[in-house]
Amino acid sequence: MKQLVEEKDGKLYYNGYCLVDLAKKFGTPLTITFLDIIKERILSLKDAFENAKKTTDYKGDFIYLNANKANYGKDEIESAFIFADGLETSSFYDLVLSLKMYEKYPLFKDKLIVCNGLKQDNYLDTIIKAHNDGYNIITVIDDIYEYEYLKKENIDLKIGLRIHLSSLYEPEVPDDRFGLMEDEINYILNDVKNTKLVLDTIHYHQRGFDYEEDKFFKNFDLAFNYYIKARKMYDSVIYFDFGGGTPLPIDGEFDYESYAKSILNHIKDVCSKNNVEIPNLISENGKYSQKDSTVNIYKVVGTKNTGKYPWHIVDSSLLIALPEMYALGEPMLIKPINNLDKKMVKARLAGITCDCDDVYFDKNKGYFEIPDVDDPEDNYIGLLGTGSYQNSMNGKGGVHHCMLPEEKDVIIFFKNGVELVKVRKELQTIEDIYGLLNIKH
Ligand SMILES: Cc1ncc(COP(=O)(O)O)c(C=O)c1O
What we know:
This protein is an alpha/beta fold. It has two domains: 5-35 and 291-437, Lyase, Ornithine Decarboxylase, Chain A, domain 1 (Beta Barrel), CATH 2.40.37; 36-289, Alanine racemase (TIM Barrel, Alpha-Beta Barrel), CATH 3.20.20.10. 34% of the residues lie in helices and 24% in strands. The protein has 14 helices and 21 strands. The protein has helices spanning 19-26, 35-56, 74-83, 92-104, 121-132, 144-151, 182-191, 213-233, 256-274, 287-290, 318-321, 323-328, 390-394, 430-437; strands at residues 5-8, 11-14, 17-18, 30-34, 62-67, 86-89, 112-115, 137-141, 158-162, 198-203, 239-241, 280-285, 294-304, 311-314, 333-336, 344-350, 359-360, 368-371, 380-384, 408-415, 418-425. The strands form three sheets. Strands 4, 13, 14, 15, 16, 17, 18, 19, 20 and 21 form a ten-stranded mixed beta sheet that branches. An eight-stranded parallel barrel has the order 5-6-7-8-9-10-11-12, surrounded by six helices. Strand 5, helix 3 and strand 6 (86-89) form a beta-alpha-beta unit. The structure holds pyridoxal-5'-phosphate. Pyridoxal-5'-phosphate binds next to strand 12 and helix 10.
């Protein structure tokens, strides 16, 4: 797995690019997305499973889906779609967007679409239409209503069952609200033979936690028992979909090939003990596909000495940029990106909104280390790995806290070996913001 972060001559490089040079070239506040990181992530996980399949002699397929919910950027989904084996959708709107991507690439029409989430009629009707139009689509039933609705259509639509496993969750986290209960699963298993629906998938979602092998396999087995049961009843059950939550390549150290081998060996073992065929595996990768592709870069624009350590205020909002960190406690990598060869001093970071929660420092240490320079406004700060869920949670093209403008948005990628740099959006203007608010300026 490619190492993304490097320090050279007092400057931080990301994906081979000097971040402070990019900040000076484009101005701040700035968001840069390196689309090729998405491609690299997808291909390297697929490679790890392909190698593991060879060494474990696993005859099933490994199917990599992009979980669109992690980032609805058109370029991000398109980059993922080209290299992945298909898309995973979580709403009616997501499916409509995905179908547009399939229309753009008719050669990829056979790539899989897996539809998750609770489904209202507009979502179900769009699934039915996509199936009738020849798309390779699986509806993962999350609620019995969806099953009854689809059954009435009398078509050979492929369905999966989302397994509700409350034991997946830490005791302090509220119950899983997704999936089918045991009696509902049994009802469908007994009833589906009387319908034209084709049961082909057993699905669960490994909610994200730092990867711990024991916990992972405990949850995996709880769901896999349903695969065994369903497969014994129906030869059509050929996929086991273990959702998202793929471990992240923290510092490039996670060994994906061993991870893949342990999953494949485990499945072979369980299947041989139970005398059932091994499944093809589906993996729905949101954060893993998208997180590391994006960085935000801010400049220090002032200091205030109102606390234990001086506040260094950046030209945007940390609170807006990192909703997952503020709402869910998700750890994020926040670092100075220049003057790294200078002595470091203890400080705290603040965003430029009026919000007293718009601050950042290491909670354990109580401070943030920043280069000690004569003019603090020479310092730039990088938020590294903001490509997943931040956009979905804070919205794009809207009006934000203190009406701060959205960052200039740049993408960088290679096409036929040529580097392309595109400004996707300039810094939001006051006219853009007033327009959204319907205010005459
Ligand atoms: C059903 C399902 N699949 C996949 C994902 C993507 O998970 P991650 O971003 O951890 O890969 C989610 C996330 O909520 C999910 O609910």
